[in-house]
Amino acid sequence: MNPLLLSPALDLVSKVLDRVxxxxxxAEKAKAEYALLVAKQGQDEVDSFRKFVVQYEGEGAxxxxxxxxxxxxxxxxxxxILAGLYGWxxxxxxxxxxxxxxxxxxxxxxxxxxxxxxxxxxxxxxxLSKT
Length: 131
Fold this sequence. Notes:
2 domains
């Protein structure tokens, strides 16, 4: 079940149970059982998806070492390329258009945000929150 729908669904069930079951203890027990059922169903969906991904991509131990290296190097190599291009454009003005440099800057923010998280970028003085 979608986590965004979980809280409203639990609130709705809670209100219905409060009206249907007059005994507070029974109503609280029913709410707890329903919340546990929803949580178990959500965990089952996550487990099913993980199992599918492992079947589709293969377990890390069963993949050949060169393929493991390629799978593990995509993000670092992409980060090095993006940082290198931005550095090149910064040191050699006119290589890229201003829009191109802005695009490289944004791609570097995305890459660094992946590696270090939004909090680290915010600590650098970059305001990434929407206002």
